[in-house]
Specification:
The protein has about 325 residues and is α/β, with parallel strands linked by helices. Helix 16 links the parallel strand 7 (about 250-255) and strand 8 (about 280-285). It is built from 17 helices and eight strands. The protein is about 50% helix and about 10% strand. It has helices at about 1-5, 10-20, 20-30, 35-50, 60-70, 100, 115-120, 120-130, 130-135, 140-145, 150-155, 160-180, 185-190, 200-210, 220-225, 260-270, 290-310; strands at about 35, 75-80, 90-95, 190-195, 215-220, 235, 250-255, 280-285. The relative contact order is 0.08. The strands form two sheets. Strands 6-5-4-7-8 form a five-stranded parallel sheet, sandwiched between helices. It has a three-stranded antiparallel sheet with strand order 1-3-2. The mean pLDDT is about 85. The protein has two domains: about 1-100, Winged helix-like DNA-binding domain superfamily/Winged helix DNA-binding domain (Arc Repressor Mutant, subunit A), CATH 1.10.10; about 115-310, Rossmann fold (3-Layer(aba) Sandwich). One of its GO terms (molecular function) is caffeate O-methyltransferase activity. This is Caffeic acid O-methyltransferase. It comes from Pinus pinaster. InterPro entries: COMT-like, COMT_C, COMT_dimerisation, SAM-dependent_MTases_sf, WH-like_DNA-bd_sf, WH_DNA-bd_sf. Its EC number is 2.1.1.68.
Length: about 325
């Protein structure tokens, strides 16, 4: 029980590590090896001094965060060499593990850091404070916390909109390379593809790179398209419930779970209008996987969607 009670500490400590660039510092400054808290603190201070003029770093607090995350496998602990056997306190260095490697930026767009920064953002955490009220009142918890729904909030808060879109783009990159290869024959047969609710255009970009003959059209709301800078695809402002441009195929990736069944049917009908022989590609996840690990992840998504979306359930 206490493990569950205090489990909220984990993503917030992980968020601190990402904001302090700890995985990147170890990856780039450790030459492939571990670093002590003092060494990491030196590089944090240097980065802060050049950007903010503040070079103060509390090594004690830093060590405790590293030690905590290492206990959950985020970092690897390694005793420093050449220490006396009878040393009262062993000096420890911290290295990367499979988990923390997924948080290294490295310029390849593969870091899962943006997803963490979204989930651990105060905007979503405030909505979770009203979770019990959704049972008592049948209310929309995000609306309860912020006085508007998620899409309205994104349209009116550019900073959170950026965090949200970067997280969605990160999730996209983690799966779309596989999708582009798995559906290779299907993509070869189409000349135009519309990604409905395509965000920054990341999914289309990956597909077009693999299949350069495709004209990719990224359709999303104006406040999303305003920040979409990915090249190689066409960015188009629009509302998927009102009009979807004609194309050989329409792709809906992780958007149907944002809406109630009736709205999903309406969107699908709009997608099939004027393309009787065209294709509608749906990329999504579901809660029905029987494996324990996948089911647990699916249920985490389910609760998250219940907090952020009105229709209340993951499929």
């Amino acid at each position: 029980l206490y493990e569950m009670i205090f489990s909220a500490v984990k993503p917030l400590a992980l968020k601190a590590a990402v904001l302090l660039n700890l995985p990147d510092i170890i990856a780039t400054r450790g030459n492939g090896g571990p670093l002590s808290a003092e060494q990491i603190a030196f590089h944090i201070a240097a980065a802060n001094s050049s950007s903010t003029g503040n070079s103060h770093v509390d090594v004690g607090y830093l060590y405790r965060i590293l030690r905590f995350l290492a206990s959950y496998g985020v970092f690897a602990e390694q005793e420093e060499a050449d220490q006396p056997d009878d040393a009262e306190t062993k000096k420890i260095k911290f290295g990367l593990t499979g988990i923390s490697k997924l948080l290294v930026h490295g310029g390849n767009g593969q870091s899962r850091g943006p997803v963490l920064l979204l989930i651990a953002n105060n905007v979503l955490l405030e909505a979770f404070q009203h979770l019990h009220e959704s049972v008592l009142e049948g209310c929309y918890t995000f609306n309860k916390a912020h006085g508007m729904d998620l899409w309205e909030y994104l349209a009116n808060n550019l900073e959170f909109n950026k965090i949200f879109n970067e997280a969605m783009a990160t999730n996209t990159r983690s799966v779309m390379a596989s999708v582009a290869k798995m559906y290779e024959d299907g993509f070869k047969s189409m000349a135009t593809l519309v990604d409905v609710g395509g965000g920054m255009g990341s999914a289309l970009s990956i597909i077009v790179k693999e299949h350069s003959h495709i004209r990719g059209i990224n359709l999303d709301l104006p406040h999303v398209i305003a920040t979409a800078s990915i090249t190689g695809v066409e960015h188009m402002e629009g509302n998927m419930f009102e009009h979807i441009p004609s194309a050989d195929a329409v792709m809906m990736k992780w958007i149907l779970h944002d809406w109630a069944d009736e709205e999903c049917v309406n969107c699908r009908e709009e997608a099939t209008t004027q393309r009787s022989e065209g294709k509608v590609l749906v990329v999504s996840s579901c809660c029905g996987d029987k494996s324990e690990a996948c089911r647990a992840i699916g249920l985490l998504y389910d609760i998250s969607m219940m907090v952020t979306h009105w229709w209340k359930n993951e499929r």
